[in-house]
Structure formats: structure tokens, C-alpha cells
């Protein structure tokens, strides 16, 4: 399967990959739990570790969508990583409560359905929750790391962008025309400037967001702002430039900051410094 075919059914394959990961984790954890019970001479039956891990991994699988949704609202970006990371830390208790509550009552129901006389119950719910929360905290950031690492790899596979210049590549690039040259996997193709939704700062790179694709460009945000100002792009944050034709709504916050809602559904932060200028331009 090539990259183009993968991207055409990207969401389907992402679900398949997560199911495969969770299935492997379920099997490995169940085997470890079974060995632990054997060493402790526990009276638990063989099927119980499978139920424990299946309920835990099943709820975790559903909660991946919750993490993605929250990360969409509070993405971890270079310019605001401290605030965003803190928001994710504060969100972990919610993640854990949903996970622990879901798996606990699923286990209770399964034990009753199987006719287990002892049933499933926790003598001290909050002590058990504290133990599970510590594990969920690690799981949450493991999932988040996997998500960001996957995005990074996918961006690199999609290719890097550069300004389209005249003549040899060694020549200093001229002011951008209406195309970017994309290089990936030994191939080159062009992307229209008008097709770019927004541009995000990422260290020494500026990521060009084109639909679901992201092309890293080695360039500063200041230079990008100057080059694209006449083509309908506006700096809205120290880490973001938007295509003004893609903005559907500007949502203000009480702090004076805000966010721009794009036609793609992406929310881009708008700082107080640029918000007034953006509103004036849109008028």
C-alpha cells in the first residue's frame, strides 16, 4: 500500500491500528496478570484476568476519541506548550473517572452474567481509584505521545515544502508566486498558496496545513507573514497565520484573546495583539 492509498482511507486505517495495539496490550497484560495470580496462589479463575483487561482496554479504546477531541480544543504547540500541557494534566482525572467507572460497572455486569457467586466489587472504591488513576495518568500521556509521534511521521512522509524559485535550487528564493514546491519520497509536486488553510509555527519550521495534510517548510513566521500578506494571509498569533478566506467565525474570550474557526473545523488561536487587526481586515 502506498501513501496516497493510505491517506485516502486514513481514518479507517487509524482505527485498525488502534484496535491492533489495544488487542496486543490486552493479551500481554492478561498473561502477566495470570502469572501474577499463579505466583500469589490466588483463588481467581483463569477467565478473570481476561475480563479485567478486556474491560479496561475496551474503555481505553473509546476514550482515545475523547483525547483526540480534547487535543483538538487544546493542541500542544510550541508557542503555548506550557499552558496546553497543564490543561492536559488537569484533564487526566476526567479521563480516569470515565475509564474506571466504565470498566468497574462492566466487570460487575459480566460477573453477574456469568453467575459468579462472589461477584465483583471494591471494598474501598477511592483507594482503588487512586491506584487506577496513577496508571491512567501514564496511559493518557502514552496515548498522547503515540498520537503526536504518528502525526510527526505522517507529516514527514507527506513531504517538505519550499518556496518555488526560478533557476537552480542554490539560488536565493524569490518572493513566493502562487505555488509551493513539495518534495517527498523522491518526487516533486506543487501546492497552490490558495489551497493552504493555515500555517503553524513548529520550531525552525512553519507547517503548511492543506486539508488533512501538513507540509513542513524551513522558514520563520515573520518571513512567511511578509511573503503572504498580499495573498490574503494574516498573522493571528505568534504561532499561527491563517488564510482569511478560510475563516468562518472569530470566537472572543474574556481575556481578550480568541480563536478563529476555519471551514475545515480547525480552531486556530487568535491573540489579543492581532485580534483587532484581524477584525478590521475582515470588515
Essential attributes:
7 helices, alpha+beta, three-stranded antiparallel β-sheet, five-stranded antiparallel β-sheet, 283 residues, elongated
Descriptive account of the structure:
- By secondary structure, the chain is α+β, with helices and mostly antiparallel strands.
- 53% of the residues lie in helices and 20% in strands.
- The chain is built from seven helices and eleven strands.
- The chain has helices spanning 3-8, 10-39, 47-73, 81-113, 125-158, 221-228, 272-282, and strands at 160-163, 179-184, 187-192, 198-202, 205-210, 213-217, 233-237, 240-243, 247-252, 258-262, 267-270.
- The strands form three sheets. It has a five-stranded antiparallel β-sheet with strand order 6-5-4-8-7.
- α4 (81-113) packs across α5.
- The chain is elongated.
- The protein starts with a helix and ends with a helix.
- The model is unreliable at 166-175 (pLDDT under 50).
Quick recap:
By secondary structure, the protein is of the alpha+beta class.
- Strand fraction equals 15-25%
Low-confidence stretches: 166-175
The value of Rg in angstroms is 24 Å
Shape: elongated
SS elements, strand count: 11
Mean pLDDT over the full residue set: 85
Largest sheet: 5 strands, antiparallel
Task: Map the helices and strands.
Layout (H helix, E strand, L loop, with lengths): L2 H6 L1 H30 L7 H27 L7 H33 L11 H34 L1 E4 L15 E6 L2 E6 L5 E5 L2 E6 L2 E5 L3 H8 L4 E5 L2 E4 L3 E6 L5 E5 L4 E4 L1 H11 L1
Helix pairs in contact: 2-3, 3-4, 4-5
